[in-house]
Design brief:
The chain is mainly α and 199 residues long. It has one domain. Helix content is 81%, strand content 0%. The chain contains eight helices and no strands. The longest helix is centred in the first third of the chain and has 32 residues. It starts with a helix and ends with a helix. It is found in: Cell membrane. Keywords: Cell membrane, Membrane, Transmembrane, Transmembrane helix. GO terms for molecular function: homoserine transmembrane transporter activity. It comes from Campylobacter iguaniorum.
């Protein structure tokens, strides 16, 4: 397996401003970097579970039946479009109403549920994991090394976004609501690209 290709592809995909990274950015602004760590741990653990499930079940099934993969991707894309619309039409983001009293446990589960229900993550791993698995030994050490690498990359990117959110709060506190509009637009663009690739 070409590890450079694997790492480069996933790192580029991970850095895209999807739902999980937008959450890390928003929490970095609203509750601060240290509290956002709990969300990061939950989301990263969840991501490892998604990667594992895709490698052994959904990935194999969808590769065997390409039509299912196309339908699944379209469903994910339309869901992203819906979330993009809801984010864009939502009320202005206010740093004055930040949830500083949210518990570490709640942040952990927020991150976990955000990642496990993120269609972008499922679609990405369905496409990414199977081609890089060892066909002779799909349950072998390569799989677990891949998942570990994915989790490390995701955690690094979460730190980048959370620290960025904290910095954004300091640099532009009165215009923070623009972040939601930008994030919504980017998520919508990702969904449109997914649809175009299927068509």
């Amino acid at each position: 397996m070409d590890w450079l290709l694997f790492i480069g592809f996933f790192w580029a995909a991970s850095l895209m401003p999807g739902l999980n990274m937008t959450l890390a950015l928003s929490l970095g602004m609203s509750v601060g970097y240290k509290k956002t760590l709990y969300m990061m741990f939950g989301a990263t653990l969840s991501l490892g579970i998604v990667a594992f499930v895709c490698a052994f079940s959904a990935g194999a099934l969808l590769l065997k039946f390409p039509l299912f993969f196309q339908i699944f991707t379209l469903i994910c894309a339309f869901y992203l479009l819906y979330l993009s619309y809801k984010m864009f039409k939502g009320s202005k983001f206010s740093l004055e109403n930040k949830a500083t009293d949210i518990s570490p446990k709640a942040l952990f589960w927020q991150g976990f549920m955000s990642s496990i229900s993120n269609p972008k993550a499922w679609a990405l791993f369905v496409a990414l994991m199977p081609p890089f698995l060892d066909k002779a030994d799909p349950f072998g050490s390569r799989l677990y090394m891949m998942i570990a690498v994915l989790m490390v990359i995701e955690m690094i990117d979460f730190h980048i976004y959370a620290l960025g959110g904290m910095s954004f709060k300091k640099i532009l506190p009165t215009k923070a609501y623009l972040l939601e509009k930008i994030s919504a637009t980017l998520i919508g663009a990702i969904a449109i690209i997914m649809i175009v690739e299927i068509i």
